[in-house]
Amino acid sequence: MAHSFADITPPIALTPLDGRYRAQAAPLVDHLSEAALNRSRLVVETEWMIHLLDGEVIPDLRTLTEDERALLRAIPEDFGAEGIAEHAEIERETVHDVKAIEYYVKRRLAGTSLEPLAEVVHIYCTSEDVNNLSYALMIKGAVHEVWLPAFEDLIADLTVLAKDTAEVPMLSHTHGQPATPTTLGKEIAVFAHRLGRQARRIPANQTLGKINGATGTYAAHAVAVPSADWERISRTFVEHLGLTWNPLTTQIESHDWQAEIYADIARAGRILHNLATDFWTYISMGYFRQRLSAQGGTGSSTMPHKVNPIRFENAEANLEISGALLDSLSQTLVTSRLQRDLTDSTTQRNVGPALGHSLLAISNLRRGLAGLDVDADAMAADLEGNWEVLGEAVQSVMRTLGVQGTTGMDNPYERLKDLTRGHRVDGEGMREFIGSLGLPDAERDRLLALSPHTYVGYAAALVGHLDDVDPGGRA
């Protein structure tokens, strides 16, 4: 009988993010793992205790000393492998993860000057008071400290590439057919600009939090300490954590802000998916050459001549997985039955995979881009083989002259259609046709000087719009 991998120690990863792709996803572990959730809970519990005591909220209780504040803040800071194991042991007894956090903190206060104040830990809180703030801290940290910097670095890579290739002419392909030429840099700049808009949207999202009791009414608070201004205490605590206070909730914070940020990240991922498929296509057309050393290892197991665009294909797949997870999070987290149900508890534990697959895709896109060389000769050959794309220029000049009263400019579109549709036209043939049209000298000479290589309009200059705003969204 085959060995059971489930019995192997250390445990074998079930998901690729914790196995094959661990290195790329690892930065999110400090923010979105179960251990990170418990560390954030410790932050909320200890800061709440400091907030209540230093604010003299509960009558007849003293404020804290500087050493006592340091002791409390050291609890989450010191939460490592031993603390994780201890919390798990407590949770096996409590069968409640947040209650286990409360007991964990109280153990740290035993034998200290704070032991007589241990019952202040978790006072007036429901579990969701701690959880919503913990998730807010985790998600804010993951997005702003890990995902967004990686996303901005990719935009910066694209911006450099766009500027470097701003004047490299390239045949366009609308509907997959040869079309009005552009420049490679301008097409890359379109992606940098699109992604830059998303990069600026994401930091503008609010991260909401609440601490208002079992049904959002401060009922226990008001009964226990009626003299306190509990709304002010709640607001100042949430803001102290660097979050935006939500004044109206049920037992749970409604998670609408999470849906908003996931929608933005998912949209950014769909633009990245478009980028991956376009670059894959340019590679297949020969517009880019791939350096084998940059793409990594064997190109094909049977065809030694091949260098497969694996980084872009990997990015596509991971963006599809990430987008599906982010969409699911956005759709389900905004719904809670009546004042509370626990579906969000399970759902939120999947934020890590959603951002992890996106982060992996960004890593692969950057690695893929870094392994490309522009083949300007291949692009030039395509341009030279498609002189018929100048048909647009010729008929536009003829139509302009026609509306200005120049004779002989009738039916310009139809005349160019007869020449170019379904036919290959070389440079000599196009110049001969232009010369036969009876154009005024200035317009004739301007068109005769034109080629597919130079018929790019303002394409190169348009790349300069990336400097209108910092496309990465950085200050």
TrEMBL record:
Positions of the Adenylosuccinate lyase PurB C-terminal domain: 336-456
Protein's UniProt keywords contain Phosphoprotein: no
Functional pathway: Purine metabolism; AMP biosynthesis via de novo pathway; AMP from IMP: step 2/2; Purine metabolism; IMP biosynthesis via de novo pathway; 5-amino-1-(5-phospho-D-ribosyl)imidazole-4-carboxamide from 5-amino-1-(5-phospho-D-ribosyl)imidazole-4-carboxylate: step 2/2
Alphabetized PROSITE patterns for the sequence: FUMARATE_LYASES (PS00163)
InterPro entries in UniProt: Fumarase/histidase_N, Fumarate_lyase_CS, Fumarate_lyase_fam, Fumarate_lyase_N, L-Aspartase-like, PurB_bact, PurB_C
Keyword list, A-Z: Lyase, Purine biosynthesis
Species in which this protein is naturally found: Brachybacterium tyrofermentans
Keyword Repressor: no
Protein name: Adenylosuccinate lyase
Protein role: Catalyzes two reactions in de novo purine nucleotide biosynthesis. Catalyzes the breakdown of 5-aminoimidazole- (N-succinylocarboxamide) ribotide (SAICAR or 2-[5-amino-1-(5-phospho-beta-D-ribosyl)imidazole-4-carboxamido]succinate) to 5-aminoimidazole-4-carboxamide ribotide (AICAR or 5-amino-1-(5-phospho-beta-D-ribosyl)imidazole-4-carboxamide) and fumarate, and of adenylosuccinate (ADS or N(6)-(1,2-dicarboxyethyl)-AMP) to adenosine monophosphate (AMP) and fumarate.
A matching Pfam family: ASL_C
GO molecular function, one term: lyase activity
Domain Fumarate lyase N-terminal residues, every copy: 19-315
EC number: 4.3.2.2
NCBIfam families given in the database record: PRK09285.1 (NF006764)
